Amino acid sequence: MEEVASESAALVQAMLFGKASLLQEETHFLFARLGLSHILSASGFHMMSVVIFANCTIKIILQTLIYLLPNLRSFWSIHERKCIAVSSTFFMALLADACGWQKPMVRAFALGFLWNAAKLLALHPSKEWILAWSLLCAYFWGSGSLLSFSLSALSVLSMFYVMKLYRSSITERKKILLLTIAPFLTTLPLIIYNFHLLAILSPLANLLFCPLLSIFVFFPSFAGIIESLIFSTKYLQIFSEWCMSFILQFMHFFAEILSFSYWVKWNTCIIFFLLLLPILWMKKKRNKNFILYISSLGITFLFYSVFPITQKSLLLNVGQGDAILLTSKNEQAFLVDAGPLAKKPYPSKSSLAIANEAIASLAGILITHPDLDHYGGIDSILTRYKINGAIWLPKKSLFYPKTEFILASAEKRKIPIKFIEEKNFPYKNLECRSTFLGHPTNDLSPLCRFILPSGKKLLLTGDMGSDSESIYLENHRDFLKADILKIAHHGSTSSSSENFLTATQAKKALISAGKRNRYHHPHSEILTRLHNKGIKIQRTDMQGTITID
């Protein structure tokens, strides 16, 4: 219960000031599944809520003053709009400053400031002019990523277009519905390209939870700040956190029953939107096949995106780290290593790479050794994907404190831990051997051989060093023979000795390394050694995710 309360408090902070890095991985994913991630980052939703709060507050204060001092009635009737414009601008500036003037907040503040300034100065600029200047301000002076700016800009442009197109031709209910759906559709390509997640019921979730969060969490929280400054009490803050915990439980229930979120391949999304172009023509011509076309298109898109037709083994592009996705015929995918740690509030690169393959569950995960660039992404992966088997580790990894992170992540989701030395490894066509070395951690890495559907042998080496290689050369030379070799330790000179490369008889070498990494992996000596042996080289820092065949 204490954990729920602390997470509710962190959520309130995220809603007020865009501090999403305070939240747990599960909470991030919950909001992503419902299409509500924008609530956790500084956005126009926050600024609009502040404007509404400021307007209501100033009206209440002035109405109270008028009741106490009737002489102010004439002043209020003359200067009402000016007072509201100044107060809302002041509150918007406070919020934007507290959020670090991020791009969406600068856009929203500039929009409100220019609109209020025009009212005060009795000017009548066009809405297009105000919108254009607010976007320019956000782009050049706002902090934060270009992605957050793009999502914010697309959302506000789509709503502006809806308001202009259907100014008086439809009812208010229909207009609210369109204002909810338009941002969802316009930002969908960017969201799928970057996060690979399609939340079909996002418009419904926004219609339901945005008002709830505004009324019971955002407004009381903002008022609570004023309360604590004036009265040094926290009653409203406690109330908002209690409401947040209740709404959070409701969101979990909603996500389990009605979320309908799917992992989607980004290239499928592009094809889908290209195929939508004929819809415009068909609607314009009032073609009778319009409904049939769009229905079949939607079903095809969902089927192709959610259920991958072909499966392939991949060396995932996770930057400076390792993550290999193995697939066998009629088997679920199996992951070897989980890549580096995620940078909050974003999911790990490995979990995004898996999502791009539209994979919803894994048969299991093998962590070769407890180095952060090999296990760091596991919490993000366990949050997003169902693990039907176990997490496999070298037994000696239990002696290293870093392994606690893996154990805690598995225990939280009740996923069993097993050890590769037990010799009952369940995944088809994957066999592992261990040297039983434990120092340094790199030499915990087992040697694994996987038989690809094509019949070719893939040799996986983790970060093993030259000491481990010598033991394998002496005791398991036959096991080393392979067609494809995953080069150990990202191409470091601590591994891949001449004798080891010769014994593998590999024709192709795979190297996982980050672009311009600080270790200068892969080292030039290793690349030269591979070239001299006529081994073809493929690198994630140059080619991205690599299909293993």
Short summary of the structure?
This protein has 549 residues and is α/β, with parallel strands linked by helices. The chain has helices at residues 2-17, 25-33, 44-68, 72-98, 103-120, 127-141, 146-165, 172-195, 202-231, 235-258, 266-275, 277-284, 290-306, 349-355, 372-375, 378-384, 403-412, 466-475, 498-504, 524-532, 540-543, and strands at 197-199, 261-263, 313-315, 324-326, 334-336, 361-362, 364-366, 386-387, 391-393, 417-419, 430-433, 447-451, 457-460, 484-486, 508-511, 536-539, 546-548.
List the helices and strands and how they pair.
Layout: H1 2-17, H2 25-33, H3 44-68, H4 72-98, H5 103-120, H6 127-141, H7 146-165, H8 172-195, E1 197-199, H9 202-231, H10 235-258, E2 261-263, H11 266-275, H12 277-284, H13 290-306, E3 313-315, E4 324-326, E5 334-336, H14 349-355, E6 361-362, E7 364-366, H15 372-375, H16 378-384, E8 386-387, E9 391-393, H17 403-412, E10 417-419, E11 430-433, E12 447-451, E13 457-460, H18 466-475, E14 484-486, H19 498-504, E15 508-511, H20 524-532, E16 536-539, H21 540-543, E17 546-548
Parallel strand pairs: 5-7, 6-8, 7-9, 9-10, 13-14, 14-15, 15-16
Antiparallel strand pairs: 1-2, 3-4, 3-17, 4-5, 11-12, 12-13
What does the model show?
- This protein is α/β, with parallel strands linked by helices and 549 residues long.
- The protein folds into three domains: 2-101 and 109-122 and 184-263, no CATH class; 267-306; 313-548, Ribonuclease Z/Hydroxyacylglutathione hydrolase-like (Metallo-beta-lactamase, Chain A).
- It is 55% helix and 10% strand.
- The chain has helices at residues 2-17, 25-33, 44-68, 72-98, 103-120, 127-141, 146-165, 172-195, 202-231, 235-258, 266-275, 277-284, 290-306, 349-355, 372-375, 378-384, 403-412, 466-475, 498-504, 524-532, 540-543, and strands at residues 197-199, 261-263, 313-315, 324-326, 334-336, 361-362, 364-366, 386-387, 391-393, 417-419, 430-433, 447-451, 457-460, 484-486, 508-511, 536-539, 546-548.
- The protein has a seven-stranded mixed beta sheet with strand order 10-9-7-5-4-3-17, with no helix packed on it. The chain has a six-stranded mixed beta sheet with strand order 11-12-13-14-15-16.
- Strand 12 and strand 13 form a beta hairpin.
- The longest helix is centred in the middle third of the chain and has 30 residues, at 202-231.
- The chain starts with a helix and ends with a strand.
- 41% of the residues are buried.
- The mean pLDDT is 82.
